Amino acid sequence: MTNLNDVARNAHVSKMTVSRVINHPERVSDELKELVEKAIQDVGYEPNRMAKALVNKRHYVIRFLLLEDVTTVEPNYAKLLIHIANYLQESGYTLEISTDLAASTNNIDGMIVSGWRQADLEGLSLVTVPIILYGVAPENSRLSYVDVHNKQGIEMATQYMIDRGYQDIWYIGIAIDLPFAKQRALGYRSVMNKYGMSQKVFATENHAHSADILMTNMVTSIQSNTGFVCATDRIALGVVRSLTRIYEVPTDFGVIGFDGVFIDQISSPQLTTIRQPIALIAKKLVEEIVNRVESDEENTKIEVNIKPELIIRDSTQ
C-alpha cells in the first residue's frame, strides 16, 4: 500500500509538502500542485478517508431514505440500490439506508429520497442537507428530482397497442394522488386524444391481487381484441391473472406493464413492458447529489426525466 513517503519520493519534495498540497491546496502554487497530483496518480496513492473527511468537513455518506410502504415496494429498488452504492463508491462515498424521515442528519452529507407522500413534504423542507428525489416532485416544490419519463413511457405503451391493431384500449392506473401516477395517466390520454379513440380509465392499488379483483368484476363484459395499458407490472400481472381464467393472452387480449425489472419475467405469459433504465437513473441520482454536496454555489432546481425502453414479450400480439 502506498503512502505519503512514496508520493514525496516520486515528486522529489518533502512529505510535509505533499501533506500541504492535499490538505491546503489553496496555499500552494499551481505548479507544485500539478507536480504532487501527478505523483499521487503515478504511485496510486489514496488519501486516508477519515483525514479527508476532517479536512473537508464531510462524512462521505449519502442516505437513501425510503418512505414508501414496503408492501408495495417494487423489486427495482434492489437493483437501484446496488447501482447507487457502486456509483457512490466510485465518487468516494458510502451508502446508508433508512426509512425514518426524523432520523438525525448529523453524520451524512446528503439524501436521495424515494416514496414520499404529500404529508412528508413539510418534513423534507426542514432537512438541512442536500436532497434529490427519486420520483417526480410536486410542481410547487423546490425539490429537485430524477425519474423515468412517466408520461412518455405510457405514450409508448399506448401507441404500441394501437400499432398492434387493438380496437379498444383501457388504462389501469394507480389509485394514488402523486405526480408520477398523474403523468402516466396523462400519457394514455394524450395518445388516445390524438387518434380520437374512446377512453376507459380505471385505477387500483399497486397490488396484483387488487388489479385481479378489479378485472374479475368486469371481465365478462370486455370485448375481445382489447388492449390493457397498466401503470405498473404489478397491476399488469393481476390483469393477466384475471383474463387468463377465461380467455387467452395475447390471443384474445393484450396487456402491457411498466417497470420491467423482475415481475414482467415471472408472469405467464411474460409481460410486454416499459422498462425503467435503472442503472442510468442511479447514475444521475448520484451525480446530482454529489454535485450538490460538493458545490459551494446555490443549487437551482433540476428536473431530470429519463427515457424508458419498450420491451416486447408474450402478453401482446
Helix content: 40-55%
Q: Name the average pLDDT.
A: 90
**Number of distinct helices:** 12
Q: Write out the strand line-up for the largest beta sheet, numbering strands in chain order.
A: 2-1-3-4-5-11
- Estimated structural class: alpha/beta
* Unreliable stretches: none
Termini gap: 59 Å
Q: Which term fits the overall shape?
A: elongated
Following the backbone from N to C, one meets helices and strands in this order, namely HHHHEHEEHEEHEHEHEHEHEHEE
- Biggest sheet details: 6 strands, parallel
Beta strand %: 15-25%
Q: How many β-strand runs?
A: 12
Q: Please state the CA-atom Rg, rounded to the nearest Å.
A: 25 Å
List keywords for this structure.
6-stranded mixed sheet, 12 helices, 317 residues, alpha/beta, single chain, elongated
3D structure, described in words:
The protein is of the alpha/beta class and 317 residues long. 41% of the residues lie in helices and 19% in strands. It is built from twelve helices and twelve strands. The strands form two sheets. It has a six-stranded parallel beta sheet. The chain has a six-stranded mixed beta sheet with strand order 7-6-8-9-10-12, sandwiched between helices. The longest helix is centred in the middle third of the chain and has 17 residues.
